[in-house]
Amino acid sequence: MSDGKVETPPDQSSAAVSPHASVQQNNPLSRKLNKILDTRLDNDKEMLEALKALSVFFTENSLRTRRNLRGDIERRSLAINQDFAQIFKAVKEELESVSEDVQAMSSCCEEMTNRLKATKEQTQDLIVKTNKLQGEK
C-alpha cells in the first residue's frame, strides 16, 4: 500500500477485466461504494434499524432530498429532543409539586408531634396525681 494502490481481494475479478481498475480503486467514491457493497446488512441490527427509521421519512430519492438529508435528520433529532425536554419539564414540575406536598405533610407531622409532646407535658402532672390517688384507695 505504500505506492497508493489499494489491494483487491482475490475473489474480485474486476481488476483483471478493467484496465482502469487501479484508478477506480484509488477513487474515494469507489472505495466507499465497495465498502458499502461488501458489508453484510443481515447481521448488522443497528444498521437495519437505522435504515428502517430513515425509510419512514426519506421516501423520494432525488438530488434535492439527498442534499437535504442531513438537515432533515438534524431537524428531526432536534424536534425529538425538544419533545423529550418538554415532557421531562412536565415530569420535573410534577415531582416538584409532590416534593412540596411531602414537605407540607412533614411540617404538619412535626407540628402535631410538638403538640402531642406539649400536651403530654401538661398532662403529666395530672396523670401522676391520678395514679397517686388511685394507689391510696
UniProtKB/TrEMBL annotation:
Bilayer topology term: Peripheral membrane protein
Pfam families linked: COG6_N
Cellular localization per UniProt: Golgi apparatus membrane
Keywords, sorted A to Z: Golgi apparatus, Membrane, Protein transport, Transport
Chief location category: Golgi
Gene Ontology CC: Golgi membrane; Golgi transport complex
GO terms (BP aspect): intra-Golgi vesicle-mediated transport; protein transport
Record flagged with keyword Transport: yes
Domain Conserved oligomeric complex COG6 N-terminal: 54-137
Family: Belongs to the COG6 family.
Function: Required for normal Golgi function.
Description of how the protein assembles with itself and partners: Component of the conserved oligomeric Golgi complex which is composed of eight different subunits and is required for normal Golgi morphology and localization.
Protein name per its UniProtKB record: Conserved oligomeric Golgi complex subunit 6
Source organism of this protein record: Knipowitschia caucasica (Caucasian dwarf goby)
